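debug: dumping io for the single-chain case to check the tokenizer round-trip. Nothing else runs in this session.
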Amino acid sequence: MSILAAAAFEPRASDPTIMVEAASAAGRERAVSEFAGLGRVFDDGGALMVLNLATDQIDEGSATTLGHLQATSSALAVASLLSTKAFLASRGYCVVPESLRSDMESYARYAEEHGLVPAGSSSNMLFVRNPLHYRVLLGLLAQIGKDVVPYMDTQGFAELAESQAVTVRGSSPQSPQLVTAYANKSVLRDFLLGDVLGKAPDLGITGFLDYPRIVLPRGSQTSLAKLAQDLRQASTYYSKQTIGEERVLFVQVADAAGGNGNTVVYRSGHTYRMLDFQGREISCANVEELAGELLVMARCLDLEVTPFLNIVQSYSISIMVSDSGVSLLGPRTQILDPQTHAFLASNFDCMAPPGQFVELQRMLTITIAFGQELGERGFRGHTDLDVIEYRDQAGDVRVSVSESNMRRNAPSHLIALILQQPELCRRLVDGQLSFILDDHVDISCGCFDAEQLAKKIAASGIPMLSAHAPEGVVLMSPPLQYGAGDKQHLSLGVVAATDQRKHELYARVKRLLSS
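debug: decoded output
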């Protein structure tokens, strides 16, 4: 398997302190209090990219959108992870929360020592205190005279960019509305069934989304009796076989992504139990009580309920939609949590076994048709389709789509780093590079400093990726604390010339970090 279209770029030669010097003393003082601490800026082929994970006016007490879900305490740690792991991809351009100063300074020394960023890149980090405001950030970009590429092209971001006279590159006036629409899983699936496959009858819909789907839009007026009946049907989809420990239903917040807003319904006899989206366990004596609990959740959330599918494999197909058409970037395997189906890691095997993905050829064609339809409607930018292949009631392999990420997805920063290294880029384009990106690596080895952690890994005989060693482990973020207690995790990449070597190194470093 190889990336079907890829392009290298030469790093821009510029003063690494440009972001700091661009702001006057007064501007820097204002930025300290108002800058987007969870924002991320990096050079993307001549444009600065903004990682707009956080938004203004977040009510942490009511998770009603993906942005709100990401504003909970545990998800804020994830947002911090994303805002730091792009340091390598940016070659040092970084806006980081003040609370992470010591972590990032150590991380910058690790990256510079291994030649992953130019010497002095640490001076390009700007540490700020307020994580939720973007107006000052965009104002500074306007002063620099740079275009921006948003992490996610939303209407709010477009309005802010326009108010600050910043040009959004690779976008269109229609893009924000389409991002909002098709980030919703239920809307996306209906769009694929109707507008995409309806125009391509030769692709057929046999076996596509061929399982019970219960869509509960926000404020749903579905009757309790009707919902209970539908839930009973969905929970007995695998009536002759048990999925795990009686996991029978899968509940998703339609606007969420990356495992946020997923919960599993367990059945024992006639009783059901699940966690709500605040982490509280709900126990229901029968399916009618379960229906009532879901209707309460659906007062403020768009929900979709399906059987907990017997997933065989999951992969993601990336495309770029531009004025010149749709570019196919190729598929990557997704590693999912077997208990919750939450995303864990992205895996690119350069020698995938033939026939590994039963429905891959059809899904490649559907993804291109999806991109063409989006392009005709005015969308411009990067997106993908996350595909699952599952076994139906008869044991046959069927195909479904879990979501579309109309933004920079999980492995994008590692790919950007690869493209900056000429040898790695050449191997990638030639189909001779294998890599994996895991955003959820727990650390139990007692080493929570990036410099020391890199030395510990190297001392164990595991190679570290560097400008002079185009194979090995790369720390995509510093170790960061999350949740209660002293839990630490980081984003970790492994790059190798063969799939076997990559998986060997990945297994070794995971064992070391968990020891």
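debug: round-trip ok. The longest helix spans residues 360-376.
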